[in-house]
Design brief:
alpha/beta, binds zinc ion, single chain, 9 helices, 208 residues, 6-stranded mixed sheet, Beta-carbonic Anhydrase, Chain A
Length: 208
């Protein structure tokens, strides 16, 4: 905690002061982020840092595995779904990025039994959202490392299908005013690849 308290002090006294006008403008005008960023909760994935964005630029969802549960309008509480709805129908973002990443613990967990511990009841259920990617990656085959990387990448692609089960997302995509993207962030190199729909491959950002 000590580190956080010191960090906050530093933020308040240096970074906030330096960017005070931006913060005041964001209060006065409200937030108008252009992008919904769906990333993993992993502590090494910091959306604002890896995209060089400022406060107000990204509306962010971070959950275990950067998964999107399919549209399911029932009486339950759905945190990811509500954030998607808010971003698409209220904030009217122009883009949604689903960003997978290397060395993802959630994806690794698909390959080991976490047990039936009731303390993990939600985690085990949530990880089902990666099972389709796991099956596909296993079909591709390769080394253990290659299978994990392919699962991380395929999972991010498959989440787009789940995104399209949301009526508001589907409508805006069909109307041509919402774009969906798949990214893959590599912790070890700081690089990002994006999925190119036409070629069906991931391409380095630097090459585009
Ligand atoms: Zn992860």
């Amino acid at each position: 905690m000590e580190k956080l308290l010191k960090g906050h002090k530093k933020f308040k006294n240096i970074k906030f002061k330096k960017n005070k006008d931006l913060y005041l403008k964001l209060v006065k005008d409200g937030q108008h982020p252009g992008t919904l960023f769906i990333g993993c909760s992993d502590s090494r994935v910091i959306p604002g840092l890896i995209t060089g964005t400022k406060p107000g630029d990204l509306f962010t969802i971070q959950n275990v595995g950067n998964f999107v549960a399919p549209y399911k309008p029932d009486e339950d509480y759905h945190s990811t779904a509500s954030a998607i709805e808010y971003a698409v129908s209220v904030l009217k973002v122009d883009d949604i990025i689903v960003c997978g990443h290397s060395h993802c613990g959630a994806i690794k967990s698909l390959y080991k039994d976490l047990g039936e511990d009731c303390d993990l009841i939600h985690t085990n259920k949530w990880l089902e959202l990666g099972s389709e990617a796991k099956k596909a990656a296993q079909l591709f085959g390769g080394t253990e490392e290659e299978i994990l990387v392919n699962t991380e990448k395929l999972s991010a692609i498959f989440q787009l299908e789940n995104l399209l089960t949301y009526p508001a997302v589907k409508k805006r995509v069909e109307d041509g005013n919402l774009n969906l993207h798949v990214w893959y962030y590599m912790i070890e190199s700081g690089e990002i690849e994006y999925y190119d729909d036409e070629s069906g491959t991931f391409i380095h950002m630097d090459e585009s």
